[in-house]
Amino acid sequence: MDRVSIFKDAISIAKVNEEENTVFGWASVAIAEDGSAVVDREGDVITPAELRKAAYEFTKAFGEANVAHSGPSVGNLVTSLVVDADSRSTLGITKGPKVGWYVGFQVDDATFAKVKDGTLSMFSIEGTGTRVAA
């Protein structure tokens, strides 16, 4: 798995902190609020177990962000939480079956300006995988 990118459209950035140049939101969602599997733009589905594995591997190996899956690092991971039944139970969160990976990055000034003006409005995970017929 490569870097998590800040990208335009799809899952919107949930929160920004201007004092710290931090940006927060869902990097990926495997199970929607209604309990259905999420299908991405390429028609792929990631299982909760594979999402957890990808999140852990990313955090261990990279912890950096770039823009649109290319170029140099523009920031670093500051928050990473796989939200699933186990983490919701541990944290006392009772809402919904949603399963996903919530992240926060501290980014450089130029990237943060693009987040603020709407040029960059979401996160996107980049990686490799093997398609398996359903």
Describe this structure in words.
This protein is of the alpha+beta class. It has helices spanning 48-61, 85-91, 109-116, and strands at residues 4-12, 15-17, 22-31, 64-67, 70-83, 99-107, 122-125. The chain has a 7-stranded mixed β-sheet with strand order 2-3-6-5-4-1-7. The longest helix is centred in the middle third of the chain and has 14 residues, at 48-61. Residues 1-10 have low confidence and may be disordered.
Secondary-structure blueprint:
Blueprint: E1 4-12, E2 15-17, E3 22-31, H1 48-61, E4 64-67, E5 70-83, H2 85-91, E6 99-107, H3 109-116, E7 122-125
Parallel strand pairs: 1-4
Antiparallel strand pairs: 1-7, 2-3, 3-6, 4-5, 5-6
